């Protein structure tokens, strides 16, 4: 079989084979276009109260193509001419007044309307502004040249989940596809309707977690306290909380979204990361966790799925997410969820068994497992290693060492990994010592990290967020929603692969020949013997 490890990969179902049916021209079904939206003209009356004067125009207009334009130009999809609307209106209509676009490759994305006119396009009485965009939602009223000149009512025929969230949320955000789901809730992609910006919204139910454990979201004082902690965090490598909605049944947390996806996916795509790239990303992770610790926060669930990347490029900002979720869902429930799959958990967490305390050092261990996976692309501890149980592997610090995978890795990287995966807490390396470790002393990397983080601070203006209360009018709805608004200046980054707190981590399948044992190499024999002691 050889000394071979299968790469980091998600559990996927085997794709079905191509059908053996010979689809002839006779039995091929005719193409049926997707009608993704519909425009209903507003009323026509003889009193002249409304803008339309032609009683013979069609009852509605189906939106099939990805773009729809309206204006006086003959090139428009819908051409406004004299005799259709009042003369005093049409003279103020632009050749291209507005355009509606929808990405049909992603049907759960919203329709976007862009104002192309000087005299204005209005949605529900509010002016968009020339060159600006806005999300179109079901039953939105479109007016041109003046808020009272309502010409269409938009009907969204691609049903989304607007009705499944409180109106205070659906009035501001367009709910799109699900990004992730786990024990701590579900995460969905949302669009700010006015700004057309993408965000992630984490929905945490107050009743129960998916594993059947009760949570502690029914105490409004605890909720406010934890939100105050989240809003006070101010670091470019920590995910930003934009807004929080507290209802009778759930808490909705609006977060920034990032384009680069998860660190897990980056490792999966490449098999493993180079030492240089690992050093660049890892330095940011350490700085982020050090900041959390300085604020009195221990993450306790660090893993590649909870490390997000701002862009697809190598020079990208790292952001830590899902910190503090244990405070939202309850300590006991959170620990029971995490300990179900303790691939990244420190031995003292397993020994504590939800009863005894442990410190910030647990995050150093988890970072060590992440460093291990980044460098070689497989997990140091796994249920698939049959020599010992997963619990025994972690408690003794006996990680799987494959010489063929580690042969190209520098000695300093190996030594740093071993010092992080040290069982005895008092002997484990600290975050400051990691930053000063010989492997981390790469001048070029240090400068690149400082530069990219400085630019992030300048561009996004990471001022402290402030907590404001919504007016009574905003909160008056059937769901009894309290809007906890987090106000911050500057724009946020975007991403399409936000992941929730998952009860089952994405798996790393490993196949080793008999030559690879549960051991370290010669450079770590002394360290490993100490790590194996309870």
Automatic annotation (TrEMBL):
Start and end residues of each stretch annotated as Disordered: 512-534
Pfam entry (one): Pkinase
Domain Protein kinase: 173-440
Gene3D superfamilies: 2.60.200.20, Phosphorylase Kinase, domain 1 (3.30.200.20), Transferase(Phosphotransferase) domain 1 (1.10.510.10)
Keywords from the named record: ATP-binding, Nucleotide-binding
Compositionally biased intervals (Polar residues): 523-534
All residue ranges annotated as the FHA domain in the record: 68-128
Record GO terms (molecular function): ATP binding; protein kinase activity
PANTHER family, per the entry: SERINE/THREONINE-PROTEIN KINASE (PTHR24347)
Protein name (database record): Ovarian-specific serine/threonine-protein kinase Lok
Lineage of source species: Eukaryota, Metazoa, Ecdysozoa, Arthropoda, Hexapoda
């Amino acid at each position: 079989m050889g000394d071979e490890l299968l790469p980091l990969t998600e559990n996927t179902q085997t794709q079905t084979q191509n059908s053996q049916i010979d689809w002839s021209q006779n039995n091929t079904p005719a193409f049926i276009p997707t009608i993704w939206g519909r425009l209903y003209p507003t009323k026509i009356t003889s009193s002249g109260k409304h803008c339309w004067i032609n009683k013979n125009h069609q009852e509605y207009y189906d939106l099939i193509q990805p773009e729809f334009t309206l204006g006086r130009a003959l090139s428009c999809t819908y051409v406004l001419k004299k005799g259709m609307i009042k003369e005093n209106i049409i003279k103020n209509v632009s050749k291209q007044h507005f355009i509606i676009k929808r990405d049909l490759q992603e049907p759960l994305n919203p329709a976007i309307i862009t104002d192309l006119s000087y005299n204005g396009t209005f949605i529900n009485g509010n002016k968009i502004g020339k060159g600006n965009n806005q999300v179109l939602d079901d039953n939105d009223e479109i007016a041109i040249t003046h808020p009272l000149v309502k010409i269409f009512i938009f009907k969204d025929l691609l049903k989304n989940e607007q009705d499944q969230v409180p109106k205070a949320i659906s009035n501001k955000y367009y709910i799109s596809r699900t990004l992730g789901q786990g024990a701590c809730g579900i995460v969905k992609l949302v669009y700010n309707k006015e700004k057309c910006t993408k965000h992630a919204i984490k929905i945490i139910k107050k009743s129960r977690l998916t594993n059947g454990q009760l949570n502690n979201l029914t105490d409004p004082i605890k909720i406010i306290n934890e939100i105050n902690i989240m809003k006070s965090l101010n670091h470019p490598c920590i995910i930003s909380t934009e807004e929080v909605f507290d209802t009778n049944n759930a808490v909705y947390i609006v977060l920034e979204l990032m384009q680069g996806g998860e660190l897990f996916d980056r490792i999966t795509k490449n098999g493993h990361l180079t030492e240089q790239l690992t050093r660049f990303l890892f330095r940011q992770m350490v700085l982020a966790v050090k900041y959390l610790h300085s604020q009195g926060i221990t993450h306790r669930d660090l893993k590649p799925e909870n490390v997000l990347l701002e862009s697809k490029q190598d020079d990208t900002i790292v952001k830590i997410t899902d910190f503090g979720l244990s405070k939202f869902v309850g300590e006991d429930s959170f620990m029971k969820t995490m300990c179900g799959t303790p691939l990244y958990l420190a031995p003292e967490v397993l020994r504590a068994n939800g009863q005894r305390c442990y410190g910030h050092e647990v995050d150093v261990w988890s970072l060590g497992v992440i460093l291990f996976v980044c460098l070689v692309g497989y997990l140091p501890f796994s249920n698939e290693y049959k020599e010992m149980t997963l619990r025994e592997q972690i408690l003794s610090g006996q990680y799987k060492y494959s010489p063929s995978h580690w042969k190209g890795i520098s000695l300093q990287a190996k030594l740093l990994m071993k010092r992080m995966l040290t069982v005895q807490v008092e002997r484990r390396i600290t975050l400051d010592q990691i930053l000063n470790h010989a492997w981390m002393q790469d001048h070029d990397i240090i400068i690149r990290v400082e530069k990219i983080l400085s630019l992030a601070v300048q561009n996004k203006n990471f001022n402290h967020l402030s907590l404001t209360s919504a007016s009574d009018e905003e909160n008056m709805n059937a769901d009894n929603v309290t809007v906890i608004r987090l106000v911050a200046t500057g724009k946020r980054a975007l991403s399409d692969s936000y992941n929730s707190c998952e009860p089952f981590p994405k798996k790393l399948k490993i196949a080793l020949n008999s030559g690879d044992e549960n051991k370290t190499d010669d450079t770590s024999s002394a360290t490993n013997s100490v790590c194996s002691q309870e």
